[in-house]
Design brief:
It is built from 4 helices and 7 strands; from the N terminus they run αββββααββαβ. It is α/β, with parallel strands linked by helices and 157 residues long.
Length: 157
């Protein structure tokens, strides 16, 4: 992933302008989750991931939807259709856990560190217009609730 400091001035300003006017949130959780050893956890990524054969993401300017990734999807069936010249896919190609750490979550569940891993995980396309994502984020919150998810591991790229 490119660092903000490494971008040309014009592009850095463009990225920072996207944040202006957004609400700020305190670091305080909205709800008190159960102890981690009882939490059911899902992954939400912005790596533009989907299962092989599913519809790829379109250009980031219009890609405000998400893809559902079943928890039993083999790593070899994960495809990244993230479209950004600023994103280096090498890490994902070498180890999918860089952008979608499902193996690590499953290990944590086996070791009793977390309660369980959700049945479904989700991926958005990074660099999508932030304000246009809210309706889909609300929809996704409902799906997470249906899957009894207590906490989400956010994997931004």
């Amino acid at each position: 992933m490119v660092r903000l400091a490494d971008l040309p001035d014009w592009e850095r300003e463009h990225m920072l302008d996207k944040l202006k006017g957004l609400e700020s949130f305190s670091g305080r959780p909205w709800v008190k989750p159960p102890p981690l050893a009882r939490c059911r956890i899902a992954i939400v990524s912005t790596a533009g991931l989907h299962a092989r054969g599913e519809r790829p993401f379109g250009p980031s300017a219009t890609a405000t939807d998400y893809r559902i990734i079943p928890g039993d999807t083999p790593a070899s069936d994960l495809v990244m259709s993230h479209q950004s010249v600023n994103y280096d896919r090498t890490g994902f190609q070498e180890d999918h856990n860089v952008a979608f750490p499902l193996d690590r979550l499953n290990e944590l569940a086996r070791d009793g560190v977390i309660g369980s891993v959700a049945d479904y995980h989700y991926s958005f396309m990074g660099a999508a217009p932030i304000r246009k994502l809210e309706p889909k984020a609300r929809e996704l919150a409902g799906l997470l609730k249906q899957d009894r998810v207590d906490a989400v591991l956010l994997c931004p790229v």
